[in-house]
């Protein structure tokens, strides 16, 4: 056993050694064109990972069990609990990595590829019937993604027949949680029922100014008709409202004396009010039919529909000072080099009045109350004048109203004792309606629906300033739409098939899929800047995408497995990366095409009574990716669009997981992930001003060999688990994270960014290095504890005459209270082209929670 561990460790070390020999960062030529920018999206959800432990079917053929049924993966088991605080992403993948299939339907967003965890937030207990396929393995429910594929059976008959009530207390995003779930299992008439309700609440979460109010529900009915047919109806939803944390610069955190400084809130009438609020409710309805013509085949069909709104609020303003408390001109560093007296004065002021680092709600109300204005030709009516308090500050909602229809059918059939065929088809249609609405006028009477940047650039053109020429000078009150207003429609259909050959010592599989994706934009406003390109339906974009996947496993015996898998696929671009300025017009990127993904993996798994060991090495390359960035550009003094193309990325590394049972009560668990994820191309950028269709520049972005950000590229965990014969358990695990990188701003990786650095200045090279260098976060260590106890209550405490258990669980994360662990961040999408000072627009960061806990009690009967 020790030999296996040493061998796997040596392979992993070799992987790391090779990775360290990567070429240095991309170098810029002595002369070139200009700039670009990159989105930084911090993703923090690692799906619940439960490995199917059911025994394989035994047909008496002497065939060694396949690797999929040979036991749970110790690496995933450790990664689920121990790596997520550092926002660890499996194999570093971003949007194309993981997928969740609820009753066979892929729920990943068609608009951006992310998993919409908010749809079922709080329903963990109703989603415990899971099957997982990791990496490029074969599975029996889909062609699969390239990382973790999770199948969740939410039918009533899949739930354990029991009732559970519970309460939990925590100091994380929410403080209180209550849960009630009841499932009957199938009765003699073939009916099964299951339902759940949960509620979660926090007046203030771990981060100051945040709060949480959420509920979730689940209901399902199954009906068996004979032995071959089962019909199911399922519905679930999770209405939620939460005040959120915004990222901020380190200077503001230092002034506030906390890494959990939150610029999103301020005091109003003595109470904390958060401007950054998320509200969402998108209920889901599903129907399913499970048909089993005989014991060796199955046809499963499911349809689902979901609709609802997701609203993100934030401050908006018109011809007024920036209301954000951490705006760079309000911080002491802005004056440090030019006015030392003001610099010192601000330092002293914020130290004595930290509340001034928060939103000044009262001042916003005062500004609106003092701004009495007359609007001529209001609502586009000639001679119609309106006088009142015109709001210069409002609280705005950015709304995404989603409607999505999904259908899926999968056939599984055993053609012979050795050969299994699986085939499926699916169809999805998603319509996203994007718009802004006024949430609160903050004491004013109205808002006017005009474009203030166009008003500045085209002061003599009354049409150019209109967000909607069909409704000019529209007067907006609370709850009404303003600004951008458009729909995106996405259609996708796919068909796939897979053959799995299981021999005595080998398994082989091959799978193919062909998908067709199309999308188009429908403008609901006739924008004054782009009257011909903004309104109505745009041309449709079409993409046909093949996928090929194959693999082989050598089964030395029932314990030792060696495998190799490979995949080639193409993927249509997401619409938000296709349109140059989706909020204003139909224009798409030049030469828009699908992204290509090539991936391979090989590994070894040992499944012995006392030792589970797994090692996997992988390599994946993405080519021809695209992105679109919109932000304020100081050099052009306007909002600009950067259409990026030719984005190539490489992900390679190794994973190892160990679960060693020393005796009947004590076991050791370990996991390690060593990866190297980096950009592998010089990207191309086409720069346009948001207020015109004019191309300002075509540029090269020198990001080759810069690291993929926002996830630790090395993560290690080791811990001990003790399970007492008296039904309690305790575990402690230490976790180490390294090679974590800040998301880089492409503007700083262009020739123009360093073009004017004075070559005669001896510090010129230092200036260039400061501009080009990608920040690497410090390595971090955390210590976590988990424990629990269960007890069968005496008979006189049974509920409904059923065996009743009392359950207690406690999880304590970050026992050492490490509050210095940066879990993510990004360079701001602005750059000081004149002064060449990167610190003028410093990065913004997030920090992981310090010591945090979750304690729960419950009854199960």
Structure description:
There is one protein chain. By secondary structure, this protein is mainly beta. Helix content is 9%, strand content 46%. The chain has eight helices and 40 strands. The chain has a 27-stranded antiparallel β-sheet that branches. It has a four-stranded mixed β-sheet with strand order 2-1-4-3, with no helix packed on it. A hairpin with a 4-residue loop joins strand 34 and strand 35. The two termini are 41 Å apart. The relative contact order is 0.14. Mean pLDDT is 89; it is low at 1-24 and 27-71.
Task: Jot down its keywords.
46% strand, disordered N terminus, four-stranded mixed sheet, 8 helices
Oligomer: single chain
Apparent shape: globular
Strand residue percentage = over 45%
Helix content: under 10%
Backbone CA Rg = 29 Å
What is the end-to-end distance? 41 Å
The structural class is mainly beta
Give a short synopsis of this structure.
By secondary structure, the protein is mainly β. The protein is built from 8 helices and 40 strands.
How would the blueprint of this fold be written?
Blueprint: H1 2-20, H2 74-82, E1 99-102, E2 105-106, E3 130-134, E4 148-152, E5 162-170, E6 176-183, E7 191-202, E8 211-225, E9 229-237, E10 240-243, E11 248-249, H3 250-256, E12 265-268, E13 271-274, E14 277-281, E15 284-294, E16 297-317, H4 340-352, H5 361-369, E17 372-375, E18 386-389, E19 393-414, E20 419-440, E21 447-448, H6 452-457, E22 475-476, E23 481-502, E24 506-523, E25 536-537, E26 541-555, E27 560-571, E28 595-607, E29 611-633, E30 638-661, E31 666-679, E32 683-689, E33 695-701, E34 714-723, E35 728-738, H7 751-754, H8 764-772, E36 780-792, E37 805-813, E38 822-826, E39 844-847, E40 852-860
